[in-house]
Amino acid sequence: MPATDPLFRSDPYARSCTARVVAVTEEGGVILDRSVFYPTGGGQPGDSGRLTDAAGRVWTVTEAVKGRASGTDGGPDAIVHRLDATGAEAPPAIGTQV
């Protein structure tokens, strides 16, 4: 699982950013190269929101959770964006800019 640059660490009030899909989990979650979504932790729920691509397709993020990037010995450093499974839209493909 690739790592995610947690933009909220340098700007905790950021509400949007441009990112690229670097992985899709077996469960249909999306890992981005960078994110403003705070993941679940310390008893606090993870952020929710939307991902939108250049064509205007929208995916609802129900929760952001921590994941461990491959090839790392440290703590979790990937953020998995769990998508609403009720929609018929497949997750955005790897390489998609959102």
Quick structural overview:
0% of the residues lie in helices and 32% in strands. It has 98 residues and is mainly β. This is Ala-tRNA(Pro) hydrolase.
Give an overview of the whole structure:
This protein is an all-beta fold. 0% of the residues lie in helices and 32% in strands. It has one domain: Elongation Factor Tu (Ef-tu), domain 3, CATH 2.40.30. A 5-stranded antiparallel β-sheet has the order 2-3-7-6-5, with no helix packed on it. A two-stranded parallel ribbon has the order 1-4. The protein starts with a strand and ends in a 15-residue tail after the last strand. It comes from Tistrella mobilis.
Topology:
Blueprint: E1 5-6, E2 21-24, E3 30-32, E4 34-35, E5 49-52, E6 58-67, E7 78-83
Parallel strand pairs: 1-4
Antiparallel strand pairs: 2-3, 3-7, 5-6, 6-7
Mean pLDDT: 89
N to C succession of SSEs: EEEEEEE
| Distance between the ends | 19 Å
- CATH A-level architecture: Beta Barrel
**Proportion in β-strands:** 25-35%
**What is the CATH top level name?**
Mainly Beta
List the defining traits of the structure above.
98 residues, mainly beta, Elongation Factor Tu (Ef-tu), domain 3, two-stranded parallel ribbon, hydrolase activity
